[in-house]
Amino acid sequence: xxxxxxxxxxxxxxxxxxxxxxxxxxxxxxxxxxxxxxxxxxxxxxxxxxxxxxxxxxxxxxxxxxxxxxxxxxxxxxxxxxxxxxxxxxxxxxxxxxxxxxxxxxxxxxxxxxxxxxxxxxxxxxxxxxxxxxxxxxxxxxxxxxxxxxxxxxxxxxxxxxxxxxxxxxxxxxxxxxxxxxxxxxxxxxxxxxxxxxxxxxxxxxxxxxxxxxxxxxxxxxxxxxxxxxxxxxxxxxxxxxxxxxxxxxxxxxxxxxxxxxxxxxxxxxxxxxx
Length: 275
Hints:
By secondary structure, the chain is α/β, with parallel strands linked by helices. The protein has helices at 17-27, 51-61, 156-163, 184-192, 214-222, 232-243, 249-256; strands at 8-11, 28-29, 35-38, 69-74, 82-86, 90-92, 101-103, 110-112, 118-120, 135-136, 144-148, 168-173, 196-201, 225-226.
């Protein structure tokens, strides 16, 4: 079906959808068609259900000249239009509202109306840009963890993952990518044991930067990879996929900082915040 279909629509639960859409963006190599994930925040037996409109808009999107993994769903709480969001730059931002999936650190690729109208808002990959055959590359390393830093966090949590033989750790730091100093020796031990450690930010919007404050500079010197504007779930799925292909530190660093599927946005704009 991946090779024969013009476009694919997948229905998915909302809670972990962005993990799936992000992972698919890395697993589907040379993607030359739209792969659309959609959802329902309100079940189909309710008058307020968003299910039918989301599926209609997703099906319309699946007929367009898009060669990316995207998430399509309500753009407002009313039945106005749906947003087309890049699969690795989208997050569920509300526990129950119909327009809960929002673009992060970018604009939506576009808007789609249930009557068939489509308005594109940002750059996206088109089918004719892909010259090779599409294929599924699902090799991953499952031993990757996420650690959310918070005041009072027991730094020995890092030792736990080292001792359990984990291969990668995503630290969700504060602000520009910080942790308390008592984490430094634990992070150093993890890296010296061969674990790849990367940094994202809890703020969701914006990018990490190891060159502003001394604490982040020290963390960076330990060998932690600062992942620009990547969402934590994107960093997590990408690290799993990259480690499934190589565990050489230099190669992993290069791949983690390479824009493989549109996951990085080098030019953040103020109007992208809380779009």
